[in-house]
Amino acid sequence: MIARALIALLLLVGAASAQTITGPVNAFAPFTPPNVALTCGVDQTTAIQSAINNSAVNRGTVALPPCPSASGCFIVSATLLVPSNTSILGTGKSVTCIKAAASLNSPIFENSNFAGGGGITLNSNIEIGFLTIDGNGSNQSHALGNYCIYLLGVDRPNVHDMELDNCDSTAIQLNGNSSTTTNGGFANNIFINTTIGNGADPLRGVGLQVSNAQRGMQVANITTLNTAGYGVLLDASEGNWSSIHTKGAGTGLTCPNSGNTVVNNPGGGGASQSNWTPCAAGIYIRNVTDVNGVDFLATEGQYYGIVIVGARHTALSGLVATDNSLKTANVWDDLHLDLNVFLSVGRGESHNLTINGAALGANTQLNTTNASSAPTSRYGLYIADGMAGSAGDATVVTGGTGCTINDSLTTSGGTSSIAAKS
Question: Which of 212, 270, 330, 411 is most buried (CB neighbours < 10 A)?
């Protein structure tokens, strides 16, 4: 509502100078400069990039007219580069569709200064919303960089009100570029339906990834369905996260309980620990500080439900992870806490991590598959006991019935009498 109110305000203020685009545009949206004729079902890369390059004529806004998927979408054959202070808005996520051409093999949207160097802010105030994006992933090379949206080092990115279908690698990645000057951003009301991946790497085919010091993010109302890799990956970043729902993570992925994807982090330091890449989880929280997360739901994953490693000064509440570990071979956990994969001093354990309320499926999951028996996990909750312990300064409160006590949890203060696995 806020975004639409602002757009309407721009209409009132800037209508005299705006130029019209061929085709109807919803009343709330400003017009796209310059006069550009867009045709559904054919390559529109040059026309759309021209509108982006000239968006200053219309106060930085490019509004795309209706072109639903049934009409063939606007086809894009080269990455659309978006500069700072630019908004690219469709007329609704079921109304305006952009589709990657076959063999695009690069992001559909990327910030213009993506090659500006590491450790700094590269662009700011980029907004993309009210769109459907079809990544056409089956006709791409399955390379790690084949994103649908990739924003690197962008201060205050805003992606919202979108459906992303068939992205090849990650559907949306917001990468902070290790900058110390990013000050927040938004990802809201996003549905990610099917990512393709390469069938072997859980980092290809991720739904939403926020990583590499993308600070102060406000993320809400995210749904991912049938991602080849992780449904949602929150990595080395901070912020407020709420209403995250992942279903069917790891679809089409072959990930064995061996090598770098063994079910537990081998621990003990060295390469075996840092190279650990857990098989696809619905939600993977890795190496984070200052995160507040509410209402996380991970269901019907092929491997883990939720994996948490190296979470510090973080509070999570309302976690639900059920009906996971659907693979016919090997078994994984609904909620798995383990050693961090980053070995810098002080980053091995989770410290000051609070989890308040977790409903886990474990071995009482519903049978929603065609198999003769219900899917099973090793544990509803698993807390690894590695070199320094996956959880330091631990206080564990258990309740309810049906707990099976095995092993003990080694913490930084000694040995707890509370079960590590239940």
Answer: 411
